[in-house]
């Protein structure tokens, strides 16, 4: 039987979900600023990456819900205001 190999995206998503779960657990006893360096050290990543995983839903492999696009169409027209 062939062994399925985990892709890089799957590994990152798994890591990022772990970061989010660990943050939610630490958040009960400490502030965000105190928890971020601890999580960064636990996972061997930078604090900037932890910050992106926790707060940027557009970050690659983010465990956060993706932002819902609005139905507002932009036309690129410039509107002038009368003086």
Task: Please give the structural blueprint.
Layout: H1 8-26, H2 32-43, H3 47-55
Helix pairs in contact: 1-2, 2-3
Output the keywords:
83 residues; mainly alpha; 3 helices; 48% helix; 0% strand; flat
Can you tell me about this structure?
With 83 residues, the chain is an all-alpha fold. It has a domain at 11-55. The protein has three helices and no strands. Helix 1 (8-26) runs antiparallel to helix 2 (32-43) and helix 2 crosses helix 3 (47-55). It is flat and about 65 Å long.
Separation of termini? 76 Å
Instruction: List the uncertain runs.
Output: none
Q: What string gives the helices and strands in order?
A: HHH
Mean pLDDT: 84
Biggest sheet record: none
β-sheet strand percentage: under 5%
Question: Strand pairing plus helix content: what structural class?
Answer: mainly alpha
Instruction: Count the beta strands.
Output: 0
User: Could you tell me the radius of gyration in angstroms?
Assistant: 19 Å
